[in-house]
Amino acid sequence: MFVNDCLNVNEKGHLTIGGCDTVELAKEYGTPLYILDENTIRNTCRSYVSSFQKFYNGNGMPLYASKALSCKELCRIANEENIGLDVVSGGEIYTAVQAGFPMEKTHFHGNNKTAQEISFAIDSKVGKFVVDNLYELELLNSIAKEKNVVVNISLRIKPGVDAHTHNFIRTGQIDSKFGFALETGEAFEAVKKALSYENLSLTELHCHIGSQIFDIDPFVTAAEIMVTFMGKIKNELDVTISELNLGGGFGIMYTSDDEPVPYENYMEKVSVAVKAKSAEFGLPVPYIYIEPGRSIVGEAGITLYTVGGRKEIPDIRTYVSIDGGMPDNVRYALYQSAYTVVNASKADKEPDELVTVAGKCCETGDLIQEHTKVANVEVGDTLAVLSTGAYNYSMASNYNRIPRPAMIMVKDGKSRVIIKRESYEDLVRNDV
Ligand SMILES: *Cc1c(COP(=O)(O)O)cnc(C)c1O
User: Fold this and answer.
1) What is the DSSP string of 266-307?
2) 303-314 pLDDT, tens per residue?
3) Is 158's C-beta closer than 6 angstroms to any atom of ligand 1?
4) N or C: where does the chain have the smaller number of CB atoms within 10 Å of the terminal CB?
């Protein structure tokens, strides 16, 4: 009935998530409210882990891309589910450390890691640095030298696969701010340079071809290109790179138009391609990392709002105003992202009314969705926006000095707070 398996409708006609009545949750915790379903998150983690077992002799590990939603509880769950973490800032590293995460299972990304972040990352025992550019190689080596340590590194490679067109293309990816280009020879020079530094140990190559991708083919092509490059490094430099990181980007369902492939199919096809290419180049089969972010938390999350007003503009549209908006979900304002909106108070009713869901900020563009079908919306109804687990809280702001909502975790009919609602006091905490 819904795009997300954790959702249902109860005898009152209310939307439920993880066995909890959303209208009751809205009353208990207030709105706006972020909700995550724990079973969905854990099952997705397990499907990634088991796909490595099934198709690749367990010779790999998923890393949760914590930029999708970084908080202590998610770090704990990742750890319990035996997956690593991909972190992109000092703040995400700090969060993982505070959660007691085993830091050797983290990869540190980013195209402009500051000296302070690098130093903090080394002190925090981050497992691997995914180096983006030559300045970073130099900087990282000099900081590692000062600390008298050797750090494990990976290099971010642009494989030249652009997955963001319907038929993905294999060139034209040079224009990206991330990583070293293959086709210009830049990546090969970077490998040579990396090998020359005494305080760096190059063990991995990394690529990430985009986000919200539904085709498997671009992932397979990228994997083949990367192993081919490992073959070149072996042949010309006599160096074996033993690990391959293929990034994230697996698509999820926001609306019924989206058709994600089972994540297992991805690992199945990629394994075959990596094994075949490795054999072709006489390479040992590499250890594989993947970095799912959105697909781990996206469909597990929903956001609840309370409707505060309606504005019918004849022949144009009906606005429905909610008590949140772009501060808690900026994705429609940022890139017109599609979402499914459900009237949680009347989840058993046909979605028969076309409305535009407007936030409460002083911006005309503060919309959650335009011209979307929802069951007759009245003031006081609880609205649910689905698939908001990824890139909502993590992108949230305090625009208009609106406190960030609380986040709760639901499981088998029970709920608990995992991130407290911000208070007005929190808002002025750093004001002098
Ligand atoms: C954003 C990102 C991911 C996660 O992407 P999703 O689309 O959320 O799966 C993984 N790796 C890198 C390097 C990224 O930048």
Assistant:
1) HHHHHHHHHHHHHHHTTPPPPEEEE--SHHHHTTTEEEEEEE
2) 999 999 999 999
3) no
4) C
